[in-house]
Amino acid sequence: MSTYDSLVIGAGQAGLSSSFHLKRFGINHVLLDGEDFPGGAWQHRWNSLTMNDVHGVADLPDGTAPTGSDLRANTAVPEWFQKYENEHDLPVMRPARVTSVSDDDGALLVRAGDRELRTRTLVNATGTWRRPFIPRYPGQELFVGKQLHTQGYVGRQEFAGKRVIVVGAGPSAIQFIGELAPISDVTWVSRHEPRWTGEDDTLRDLVRRVQEHVVAGKPPHAAKGRNIAVLREQEMEAAATGIYERWQPMFEHIEPDGVRWSDGSFAEADVILWATGFRHDIDHLAPLHLRTSEGGIALIPGKGDVQTSVTSARDPRIQLVGYGPSASTIGGNRAGRAAAVAVRDYLAATGSSA
């Protein structure tokens, strides 16, 4: 079995950026993508999400992102990714869903279905889309209505005239409320009161906290706290209903026909929409024992930019992009280059390049 110098898992923004820079450095590698088609998680976004709605998509290296328009994000971004793969002749192999990565006599053995590939280094860029997070609350299994996560949201049509509990205070929750409040009876709840633009913490503060967590080996999501919320033109119709001023703290438990708070108050519901985020898709790395006792994967601090923290502290062969402080389209690009540089330097230092 031949051995690659590097292997990238995941062909989203961070994975494409990593592959671009690896190729630029002349590093023999392959890019495995678990999807049937280009586009990463973008191809699974809800149909009503347009390029005007997304919170910015950064350019890829030597590749300009689609600008804001009424085009559906789940077609515009995948088409751009496909064009980028073709124009830069990136070595993409799909569908190749990686199930495990293990040590193999100093190299890494990557299993993807019936495929087995060996590599000297690995860049993990699997993102979060396959790991939706729904918190557990008493009575959840007794609810007779519909429960769904952001991952399963298609559009607002099926919610017309229904009583909907939207859980979460991040950008997705704000967008869902914007779509649903004009046609549904929406109740908005979250663990933390939404922090609107202009209040204390900035995005820079958040990224710094996340970086501190991953350097310490803690799970990135533990650092996030309250999201920064902002209303756009698309949410103005919903804002006129007063829904964004009627935020409520998290309920205590779920009943068959609604939710109840600790003070006894109750809200009837036909639907509970969990806009409660995702967790990183890294279970395939378990055989490498990279997790610390804190539950996360510790990363070596980046040089200068916190979003360049990509190298596993326990195994320098492993780079994680789109993990922790680089979990954004801008961060993914920066991390992609940092990962390629780390791979190049590791191969040179160990004399293991083919």
What is the fold's blueprint, element by element?
Blueprint lengths: L2 E2 L1 E4 L3 H12 L4 E4 L40 H15 L4 E2 L4 E7 L2 E6 L2 E5 L2 E3 L21 E4 L13 E5 L3 H10 L4 E6 L4 E2 L6 H13 L12 E2 L6 H4 L8 E2 L3 E3 L2 E3 L5 E3 L2 E4 L43 E3 L8 H22 L4
Parallel strand pairs: 1-7, 2-3, 2-8, 3-4, 8-19, 9-18, 10-11, 10-18, 11-14, 12-13
Antiparallel strand pairs: 5-6, 6-7, 15-16, 16-17
Helix pairs in contact: 1-6
Protein described:
The longest helix is centred in the last third of the chain and has 22 residues, at 329-350. The strands form 5 sheets. Strands 4-3-2-8-19 form a 5-stranded parallel beta sheet, with helices on one face. A 5-stranded parallel beta sheet has the order 9-18-10-11-14, with helices on one face. The protein has 354 residues and is of the alpha/beta class. Helix 1 runs parallel beside helix 6 (329-350). The protein has helices spanning 13-24, 73-87, 171-180, 203-215, 236-239, 329-350; strands at 3-4, 6-9, 29-32, 92-93, 98-104, 107-112, 115-119, 122-124, 146-149, 163-167, 185-190, 195-196, 228-229, 248-249, 253-255, 258-260, 266-268, 271-274, 318-320. The mean pLDDT is 90. It is 21% helix and 20% strand. The chain starts with a strand and ends with a helix.
